[in-house]
Amino acid sequence: MQSHEGTGYGQVMDPDASEAGGPVNEGVGQVNQIPRPAHHILESLDIEMGDVKDGVLRMGSLVEDQILAAHDALLNRDADLAQKVITSDGRINEVQRAVTALVAVTIATQAPVASDLRFLLALDRVTYELERIGDHAGSVAKQARKLAGVTSMVTYDELTPMATLAARQVRDVVMALVDIDEARARTVAGRDDEIDRLYHQVFDDVLAEMRTDPAKVDPGTRILFAAHYLERIGDRVTNIAEDVVFLATGEVEDLNP
Questions:
Q1: Whether 186 contacts 254, CB under 8 Å
Q2: Quick one: average pLDDT of 106-130?
């Protein structure tokens, strides 16, 4: 929060204070405050809302990186990279806690109303969705870690475009939120159908291979789990897109019926 120290809004001074050596009520404790002008309050609110937006953007960037790194760990069966993704989830949680705390402080100290209050509450909800998306990326990484060293594998070509699209969806929906861009939010939600299509394709292909070779059952199951987590990312992105539409229109819509 912006400090007001040194801005001229502080202790009320006795006209003789310069000679007496201190403010009125010296030694008593609390001193009177001159009310801050309305323009100063609005300026402070804008600064704190900007800080909240920056926190959400940072969360979105971290989550996007986690999705792509988890995919790389899965593709290369890289246990070290998988563990790094799992461990890094704590950074996302830390940013979420910081943003949530800042939202609470901003509401308590700035008393935003109408659209500003709705926007802050929406940003707070979105941090929860982003945190859960980060968890899904971590779950993909856990499957990658378990596949490290496995010799018998199944084919999962559609998983790469699926992960790439999921990461792009996160980036685009966060930008739509920050700009309250209804059209962009609807476009993002519409692309969830492609994630679903890729998921069903992975499911059908992997299941077919598992039926032909018992040795492929365990790795195939882990790939199916990974694909499921990516599909869930798409659903949570759609939830965020619905928040954007609500902010822009005041209407609650199901964008992925």
A1: no
A2: 90
